[in-house]
Write the structure tokens for this entry.
Amino acid sequence: MKFLHFPKWKLSSPDWVLVALVVSLTLFGLLMVYNSSVALAIRDFGNQYYYLKEQLKWVVVGLAIFGVCSVIDFRFWKSIAFPLLLFLILLLLIVLIPGVGIKALGARRWINLGFFVLQPAEFAKLSLVIYLSAWFSAKEKGRFLSFVLLLGVVVGLVILEPDLGTSLIIVFTAVVLYFLSDAPVSHFFVLTPVLVTAVIGLAILSPYRFQRLTTFFNPESDPLGASYHIRQAIIALGSGGMFGVGIGQSRQKYQYLPEANTDSIFAIIGEELGYFGALTLLILFGILLWRGFRIAQKCSDTFGKFLALGITSWIGIQIAMNIGAMVALIPLTGVPLPLISYGGSSLIIILTALGILTNISRSIRI
């Protein structure tokens, strides 16, 4: 096959610290999905293990893909970057078709494949990072307008679902990669006001986004309505104190805290494990990101360097957005916590990306 015929480098062992962190965080996430979903599983399915069993399937599949991607030469992804982009755009169009895309909670974000419910917006993060890494690995002048057009198409389709949180992750990651490709600083001053205006405009035009924005600035308003979610998250974190109420002892998971097993799972972690438990998780995430940036720094292949930077930046941005929302530093964005939150699409895509990152670590010249 094509990816087996690249010029050979002397391969080192994978970054075992990275591998250990990925496996440990994934298994910890499995535990926390169970802890946070017991009440929901009993209410909706009469089986307290329902979400645990579902997540376990995706953990097994995701770790298998992680292993496969860790041995596939990362330069293979460069050879299929453009087809992946076209496939992504096709998926983002398909999900908007009534009767094909699954609609839930006012959003049309999923495609039912029978054996798996795919969320194309999650796939967008990885495929766009791969395409931009391939594009930016070659020197080129005057690509600013092309970059803005591409970003506008992908982000525009994601916003139509609607999914502003994922859109912001995609935009921030793409902009980071663009400016790391030695783009002129003047482009930054052009992009920044445009992006800020677009985000504010989307927030004002959408009633539920506007409510989230106003709630962020005034958390005491509408405590049983728009500000209910963030208030319950703060209560959960505050209830944990320094050492937590104990594993499995959360009270907020009993239908007080919305999305306890998905977007709000960090609040449950803080409640059960306390300040020190939450801090330990942040430190582990910090080490994971440090290893990713270290791999990028040491990689002599331009595509590999951009790919490592893109994957690490994307995961770091998503972690910051999820936890920032839970501690009321930013408005609620509705994005999952990488490797921890319940959900097949997010887990598998992130494990795929981390598998590619692991392969880049093996391909560093020694």
In short: The longest strand covers residues 107-112. The CA atoms of residues 231 and 304 lie 42 Å apart. Residues 10-362 form one domain.
